[in-house]
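Worked example 3. Consider a protein that binds adenosine-5'-diphosphate.
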Amino acid sequence: MPLQLLSVTSEVYPLIKTGGLADVAGALPAALARQDITVTTLMPGYPAVMQAIGEGVPVRRYANLMGGPGTLRRGRAGELELLVLDAPHLFAREGNPYLGPHGRDWPDNPLRFAALSRVAADIAEGALGSYAPDVVQAHDWQAGLTPAYLHYNRPARRPPVVTTIHNLAFQGVFPAYLLGTLGLPAEAFSLEGLEYFGAISFLKGGILFADHVTTVSPSYAREITTAEGGMGLEGLLGGRARDLSGILNGIDTGVWDPAHDPLIPSAFSADDLSGRAADKAALQAVFGLDPAPEAFLVASIGRLTEQKGLDLLLGALPDLLGEGAQFVLLGSGDPALEAAFTAAAESHPGQVGCRIGYDEALAHLLQAGADALVVPSRFEPCGLTQLCALRYGAVPVVSRVGGLADTVIDASPVALRQGVATGFQFVPSSSAMLSDALRRAAALFREPEGWARVQQNGMATDVSWGSAAKEYAALFRRLVSSPSA
Ligand code: ADP
Ligand code: GLC
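Given these inputs, the predicted complex is written out as structure tokens:
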């Protein structure tokens, strides 16, 4: 019998996505199926999700779930087995799942995601009868209360819960007076409970009451136990060090396959990189850059936030452009950064291109056509764009933090001599060090053989979900066979 895993998440690609969490929650079910683990995904019934499953099959009704009625519906979307929480008062809102008008958090976010966790705990306890998971994976703060509800309810049936942290910067911290509304006992407001600097933290609940905590790279698993990377939770995480591990994300190598990618004009592979030239020309055309095959073309894709360090890139841009390189950016977020990159494109026509927005197809073209992908993050739990870049022969230039440190081998003289380099790393996070890494990359780019070797090493790196799925499977089986392990 396959092991039954309930995955609790607020985002799943391709239904709803604001970041890498959706990619991970969307790809793991198929990867785990190959390890004989059947995944059912519990998620909110946002409009896009309701549209995908239609009526589904109602499996449980709630007369009052955090202020209104709710129906849990079973359904399918593509290969995904879903349990969808259809609660219109909480989730029937278009657009970004967390933000309302003027880009502000929805004020009832604590109720919305407590409801998700509450229902996850019910399912874990066996409320559905026909379906009871052997193990639960709760993703990020939105699912953080799942093990907390199980802890305070003391149900007869309590399968092991793994909390997976994708980003410690988002903790789900809300006013303590909500405890009663959320159906949690007063005792939960304590140091050994959800209390966090006078408020309550959903993610703290997820860390404290889970049987095991994973995060998405080994380096980030270490960093979050330090004052520098722990964002106030380092003590708690350090205390759970025995039950904390890092499992590196993969990417969907079917969706990201340069040899068979319908979203790029010209296919290519590690054996024959020649198709990249046409992709580069197409990318230059789309962004109005000079059609110069010899120009070093650097790209950046992602959310424009403090985390991603794009302000460092603004500082490094004059040096890069001074060397005759080209730069393109695809992303959205902080209005000041959006304005700064838009201005850079306007003042350097033909050399800098900028597309503010979210565009999956264009992201593929950037990976296929750029010579290098720059990811200057201040912290990065895993990062997925550098994995896509490795697979597409866009040489990653990354800061040496978190998953970026774990997935890119710096082209140091030794690594180059041994023929193992896959990209460029810099540390510490500063414009000067980034500039230096970009300068090293540009210099190697001018040596076509050495450059091609680094590209091919990157393309030979295993970025699939294969080994991560094995690690998750081993963890889940261990927890199921000895729940207190
Ligand atoms: P994070 O989850 O912190 O945003 P990741 O690198 O883990 O960072 O995942 C980001 C995902 O979102 C990747 O799949 C990336 O390609 C995609 N992405 C981010 N911004 C954009 C954008 N503007 N257009 C297209 N895809 C984007
Ligand atoms: C988060 C992190 C990112 C990671 C993603 C998926 O959004 O910021 O580094 O790759 O989750 O785990």
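Take a moment to read the result before moving on. The two ends are 22 Å apart (CA to CA). The chain has 18 helices and 18 strands.
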